[in-house]
Amino acid sequence: SVLIALAEKGLGYGGQYVDLGEFEQLDPALLALNPAGQVPVLEVDGRVLTESFFLLLWLDETYPDPPLGGADPRARYAVHKWGKYLETHVAPNLAIWRWAQTGERAPAIAALARLAPERRGLWQRAAAGFEAEEVERAGAALEKAAARMAADLAQGDWLAGSDYTLADIALYPHVVQFA
User: Which residue has the higher pLDDT, 119 or 51?
Assistant: First the structure.
């Protein structure tokens, strides 16, 4: 989503590919920037910025053309609503669902030891395998999210109304994985 926003705003950037399948997000150099072991990470003027949705908001405020944060208070509310819903419902359930469906392998225990305890616990659960009920709940939560998106899209062309916004950008990389 951050790459999409950078492109929409016509911003150049220097990047470093991180192979999530090889668990490069657990590399000590990346963990020094973001102890949660998550991407994306932006370094701007010596500051490290993390958390995808907050990065999208920061980009929109810092580079307001084209505006993607919502044209009015109602649209901005919808953008923020979707950002929170993505972080609290869509992303965690998609992670569980995809892990169970793809049979991804777990990172080495030594790599997990470098993570913050709250992130380490999630990976340890994933490595042990999620319970069938948890995978079923995750699938049901994704179906609910799809229905919720469809309801908002029935009210306008985009998730936050008549304009393309950060809500659409934030959710797109996740929604394409629903199939």
Answer: 51
